[in-house]
């Protein structure tokens, strides 16, 4: 039986048009597609229905309310469609894929995010290939998770990162192999695909308030700077450290600042600034010192996925101790445990 795909167009370069201040989101994407694709080519694609969001955004403007909208949109059409494509700006696509993967755990159907580096209205657009590839993946019922499809690569959404602002190869998943490829043949690496563990209803909760902040170590960072950052009214902070999770253990005032914040109930999660790898706070004394200050290792989760996982768990009303316990629980394929 032929598959029916729901396409949610949220904005992003793929549908943008030039303006005096640069590209801006553009409407009537379906009209643009009809101009680009002859009817017989259109007819050869998996059948799809495109819904254009009333407020199309450059994804640099993404906020938790947009995640609520995308997740509820998919949830409300879940029974009517076989697969879902989300057209989204590339800048924050890795965050949105991650967030939707937590809000729609136990998915039994594919949800494929894509976009483009050059708009569909331009001659050299990569948008057509990305859209057609995403539709193809969304029609494949072996996929039961949120993925990101871009330039021939199928990546797990909550493992993906935007790593290149200029190449068509904009995305990769540094800590997890690609799930598939679309070359002459479309191939999936079935052993790597996520198998949903439960059948519970989706958890669509996503607070509009900000629960999580992201901090980064840099040479010369001091206690005063860190104290002011940690005084922000957040439940949790991601601390982007060096290498396997190391920080300046010679700076006792800085370590005391971390210890004070964690003793006051703030969660500080250690993730590496490195492009690839996992945090082992015990590998060096410089990492153990952070653990002694109450900082918890976030293993190989990406910053984007950790931000969304924490935001999601706090939105569900979990306490800091409960959230801490979930860091090493693999909810949707985001962490190697
Ligand atoms: N600024 C654009 C956005 O994220 C970039 C893109 O879509 O590639 O919406």
From TrEMBL:
The active site is at 13 (o-isoaspartyl threonine intermediate), 13, 90. InterPro entries: AsnA_fam, Asp/glu_Ase-like_sf, Asparaginase/glutaminase-like, Asparaginase/glutaminase_AS1, Asparaginase/glutaminase_AS2, Asparaginase_C, L-asparaginase_C, L-asparaginase_I. Residues 211-326 form the Asparaginase/glutaminase C-terminal domain. This is asparaginase. Signal peptide: none annotated. PROSITE patterns: ASN_GLN_ASE_1, ASN_GLN_ASE_2, ASN_GLN_ASE_3. One of its GO terms (cellular component) is cytosol. The keyword Hydrolase applies. It comes from Endozoicomonas elysicola. Keywords: Hydrolase.
């Amino acid at each position: 039986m032929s598959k029916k795909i729901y396409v949610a167009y949220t904005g992003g370069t793929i549908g943008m048009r030039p303006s005096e201040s640069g590209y801006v989101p553009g409407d009537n994407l379906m009209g643009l597609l009809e101009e680009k694709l002859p009817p017989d080519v259109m007819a050869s694609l998996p059948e799809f229905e495109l819904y254009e969001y009333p407020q199309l955004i450059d994804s640099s403007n993404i906020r938790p309310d947009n995640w609520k909208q995308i997740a509820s949109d998919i949830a409300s059409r879940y029974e009517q469609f076989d697969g879902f494509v989300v057209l989204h700006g590339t800048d924050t696509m890795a965050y949105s894929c991650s967030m939707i993967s937590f809000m729609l755990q136990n998915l039994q159907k594919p949800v494929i995010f894509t976009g483009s580096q050059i708009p569909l209205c331009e001659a050299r657009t990569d948008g057509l290939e990305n859209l057609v590839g995403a539709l193809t993946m969304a029609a494949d019922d072996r996929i039961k998770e949120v993925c990101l499809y871009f330039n021939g690569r199928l990546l797990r959404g909550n493992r993906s990162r935007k790593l290149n602002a200029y190449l068509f190869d904009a995305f990769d998943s540094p800590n997890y192999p690609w799930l598939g490829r679309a070359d002459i043949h479309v191939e999936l690496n079935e052993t790597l695909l996520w198998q949903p563990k439960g059948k519970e209803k989706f958890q669509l909760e996503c607070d509009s308030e900000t629960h999580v902040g992201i901090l980064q170590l840099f040479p010369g960072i001091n206690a005063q700077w860190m104290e002011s950052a940690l005084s922000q009214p957040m439940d949790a902070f991601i601390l982007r450290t060096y290498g396997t999770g190391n920080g300046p253990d010679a700076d006792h005032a800085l370590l005391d600042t971390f210890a004070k914040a964690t003793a006051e109930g703030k969660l500080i999660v250690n993730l590496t600034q490195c492009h690839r790898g996992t945090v082992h706070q015990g590998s060096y004394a410089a990492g153990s010192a952070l653990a002694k200050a109450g900082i918890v290792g976030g293993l190989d989760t990406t910053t984007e996925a950790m931000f969304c996982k924490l935001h999601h768990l706090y939105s569900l009303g979990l306490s800091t101790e409960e959230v801490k316990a979930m860091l090493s629980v693999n909810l949707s394929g985001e962490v190697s445990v």
